[in-house]
Amino acid sequence: MSIAYCAFHNGDYKKAMEIYDELMKRADYDRNLHAFKAACMYALCQYREAKLEAEKASTTELKNRLLFQLAQKVGDENEIMSYHAQLSSSIEDQLCMAALHYLRSHFEEATEIYKKLLIENKDYHAINIYVALCYYKMDYYDVSLEILAVYLNLYPDSIVGVNLKACNHFQLYSGKGAETELKVLQNNSNSGNVFQDNDLLRHNLVVFRGGENAL
To answer: Is 209 within the bounds of a domain?
Structure first.
C-alpha cells in the first residue's frame, strides 16, 4: 500500500493500479482499493472506467467525492446534484466542492470556500495558491500576486506558485518580465533542467516569448 501511495503521488498511476490489482486478488481485500484505483483512472482521464471502478468501493466520503467529480467530467447534472447533497463539512469535501466550482468557472463561489477554510485552518498554506488562481482567472492580477506572496514566502521553489506569479507578471507587464520570474526556478534547481522536465513551464515560455519555439 505504501509503494502504491508513493507511485500515485509520483504520477506513476499505472504502477499504482498494478499494485491495487494484485492486492484485490486476495480473498479478504479492502473494498476501498476500488476507490484508490478509480482515483488513478481519474488522473489518467479514464472517467467512465473510473466511475465503474469507484462504484465497487465501500461507501465513504472519498467514494462520494470521486463520483461527484466524475459526474462533472461526464456532464451528468443529476448525479452532480445527488453527490453534492452527500458532501459533508469536512475539509476534504469542501475542497472538492470548491474544485467543482472552479472547473465550472464559478470562481467567486470557489474563493468563498477557500477563504473560509483558510480562516479555520491557517496552517493550510497551499490554499493561498487556489485563492490566487481564482483571482487570476477573474483578472485581478494584483490581488492574485498579493495572496500568492504569502505562499511563496514560505515555499519560494514551488513550481506551481512561481509559474502563477510569472503568469500574473505576463498579464500586468510583459513576457520578458514573466520569463525572468520563471528563471528563478532554474537558478534554485540543484539538478537537471527544470523547463525540460515540466510541460507547463515549457508551454508558458513559448507564450511569454510570443510563440517562439512553439513547434
So the answer is: no
pLDDT at 115 over 80: yes
Q: What is the CATH number of the domain that holds 65?
A: 1.25.40.10
Domain count across the chain: 1
Dihedral angle of Cα 46, 49, 55, 60, to the nearest 10 degrees: -20
Tell me the residue range of the domain where 6 lies.
1-87
The 10s digit of each residue's pLDDT in 88-108 is: 999 999 999 999 999 999 999
pLDDT at 191 over 70: no
Residue-level pLDDT at 86: 96
Position 34 in a domain: yes
* Average confidence (pLDDT) over 165-170: 97
